[in-house]
Amino acid sequence: MTSRVGVVTFPGSLDDKDAARAIRIAGGLAVPLWHADADLHSVDAIVLPGGFSYGDYLRCGAIAKFAPVMEKLVDAANGGMPILGICNGFQILTESHLLPGALTRNDHLHFICRDQKLRIENNTSAWTGDFEIGQEILIPLKNGEGGYVADEKTLDELEAEGRVIARYLDLNPNGSRRDIAGITNARGNVVGIMPHPEHAVEKLTGPTTDGLGFFTSLLKSLVNDGAISV
Amino acid sequence: MSIDTVTAASATPDTAQPFAELGLKADEYQSIREILDRRPTSSELAMYSVMWSEHCSYKSSKVHLRQFGDKVPKNDSMLVGIGENAGVVDIGHGWAVTFKVESHNHPSYVEPYQGAATGIGGIVRDIISMGARPVAVMDPLRFGDPENPDTRRVLTGIVSGIGGYGNCLGLPNIGGEIVFDPSYQGNPLVNALCVGTMKHKDIHLAKASGIGNAVILYGARTGGDGIGGVSILASETFDADGPAKRPSVQVGDPFMEKLLIECTLEVLHAGLVEGIQDLGGAGISCATSELASNGEGGMHVWLDRVLLRDSTLSPEEILMSESQERMCAVVEPSKIDAFMAVCKKWDVEAVVIGEVNNSGRLTVEWHGEEIVNVPPRSVAHDGPVYERPYARPDWMDVRQASGPENLKRPTTAAEVRQTWLTMTGTPNLASKTWVTSQFDRYVMGNTILAQPEDSGMIRVDEETGLGVAISTDCNARFAALDPYAGAQLAFAESYRNVAATGAVPLAVTNCLNFGSPEDPAVMWQFERAVTGLADACLELGTPVTGGNVSFYNQTGDVAIHPTPVIGVLGVIDDVERRTPMAWKKNGELIYLLGTTRDELAGSEWAHAIHKHLGGLPPVLDLSAERTLAEILVAGSRDGFFSAAHDVSDGGIAQTLVEMAMRSGIGARVAVPAELDAFVFLWSESATRAVVVVSPGRNDEFLAMCAAKSFPVAEIGVVASSSNSVELNGVFGETISLEISELRAISEATLPRLFG
Amino acid sequence: MATVVVNVALKPEILDPQGRAVSGALGRLGLTGITDVRQGKQFVLTLDGEVDSAKQTEIEKIAETLLSNPVIEDFTIEIYP
Fold it and tell me: Would you call B164 an interface residue with chain A, using a CB distance cutoff of 8 Å?
């Protein structure tokens, strides 16, 4: 049986179809979830995609956190369901307090779209099992509000617990503290990442296919956790 | 204040009306009186004033634009021709593509961010009103002197606006141009192109048909944005003191537009709509009169039902408002509920404001009183048509006679090397990454090629790999030297750029940016450019599917260079075999296709080094251009090109620098024996490309060139052990430029000027 | 009828690149003596009736959960009349 991976669409979500494509290519079944529908439709994992949900009005991800689907998602996350928040999705996860810290305006004030080198630093989360620690990957980054911030205590905790899953290399594109590109929660099921793995899954359209690892990792972790039987 | 009704207008023929303040000439006002057989009401006057403005009615350009229809080449791919919101081209496998480029020049000088943002909003709505999903945008941009502080104000605002709006809509930005010339100082050009895809069965036209059908206005509420924008902004020039005139510029909301796109595509695919029109210049006046003209011929509108953001607006203002993110749909009564349900799902407000009838009139009532009763065609289509006088100005003789022959050229290897470094960093040739990295190129996951590649390429069908490629080009300096030739050269460059990536050129759009049509010299430039483009399109078999004219781009008496921006769209059956511009492997041979002549008039070298503009532009042989395109497409189709790049601004020097920087590995090149090194590097002769042939395929390639009698010369070889571009035969010496040095120079310019 | 003004500002330790950009612009315009600029947001809410203590608690909750992100922002509330 194929794993069911939900992709939430909010008004203004943009990379939902790309997330669905990545799931398909990795071998999963992408299940569209509508923001106003408080029903997770028996999915095994969920992706909160990139975009400008609600136009980024008020604050990025601030309005999305009140959508009907989110209450169910937060419960599922607290129960161990794997959740991946990409870019705007990461912003929604911090606004929902499923992950610590916040994402702020890029320090140089411009939107930036570039192919970004990252170093993977955690391969025990549900979404990074297929990578080696220290592995360097190249995936697209595109954001205007991607600066990760948290107080020193939180940052130290993240480092000490090995919860930084990816760090920017060569260039810090947005002023993120400690060059943090992505983090995970203590349990390792909720991951937030600023760059876009779903845009690096096909040689034709991405700088590499390094992003596929996030999705193959997830599918393997679902099998290993006995969530579904193959 | 009492409302000026039709009845009141009939009874008071001598009431003075402010037609001049609204931008209408006395004879135009008289025409309106004759059409209506009475004086117009103030609402009718408002409608005619916006719809008959230059921007909406094309009154000065129609007589010339007719050529695109008269000289249309026989072409089986045109599904919808000129006249609709955008042309539609069949690309095979049941897919169709629509594309168009539009201008938003004057608003972008007044308020750069919003001017550029709403320019994208407008062109995207044109595309969805054809029934297509927008899949990419491109931005041909032109600014004044890069060192002038006002250029910074304009450029940074425009770039932020394009990014702010386009990124939020989720449309990848796959190309465009950034050109600097003092000619655009007070008149930046912001042209916006959008391309959309659909299945044949989804094509929708803007017509109101079906008596009794409802006319529904949906999207953002109507406010006081841009009132009189079209008549005041686009149809008058600025005075020399700058943007003193500051009427209400339209303000865009990209989130609303994103909702509008999804809502519109859903109602279209669910078959809930008979006709659809976007609201752009002239707002409700335009949408209702155009829909009515194209359908059964009649419509009644209840203007007081329009949802307002500002309840103090008068009916005249509502009719003229250019509030953004609004669309108009014609819906059968039985489908209204379903239509409204889709709008509710997307949180888009919608209201029935009218009904289709066969009265042959467009009537508008305001709280029960009739305030408009006009024949819709008179507003939307049968506006004034001017035959503006045009004449070749005498100063063209002087301009064409003062060629670049006496400009000092480099005569030693050291001078050539230094010139090459300087040219690499000159603003027109420098890397545009600082700008383009502010745009999302990845969203939707179908971008195959984007800037700095020759053309932007989008995959249309994920199953078959079917794709389209688009390029926009214009060398306005060539057009200034000879507008007929300049327009043809612009078209040829765009055509060549599409072929260079392996796509077959199919159709053309254009954005014709000129000065005041009241100046016979400008009008002559316009007539020549349109004729040149029409003739070239006929010869190469690619029809013009639609486009845009922007007049009045001048400050005081000084017009911009004639700038006919030409967009060409091509199709590729499998994006997998596209030809990118970066060479790959050590030992691959580099060839120059085409003939290089001593043609430096209007070149970037003459402009950047000597600030010189004079002489005649490069010669153009359209049938040779066709042959070159055939070679470029065949090489891609048969897989023997590892890379290709056209030769244009900055000549072969720039082509080589761009290919080297893109690939990161070096090459050893030699100046052909019969050419002078300077001419080889910086001539801008047309119909040339540099190609790199995959190992083992050289004989095949050369045989094809011979069979087509097309000139080709081997000029170099890729050398991966080298990190330089090395050139032999430079006044007896070899010069070498490190790629890292070239990159540092190229990438420093824009951040230094605008960062 | 009452008006409530909620001012939201980034916490002092959070980098404010927009404030910094404004500060730079002031300098370029020749204004001296301005040593710092912080950029914030203001929400103006119009309410029916008056603001009793129950309403005030409600507004504080809204300010804390929607209008501001307490991880990085602080807020103040002013009530008129």
Answer: yes
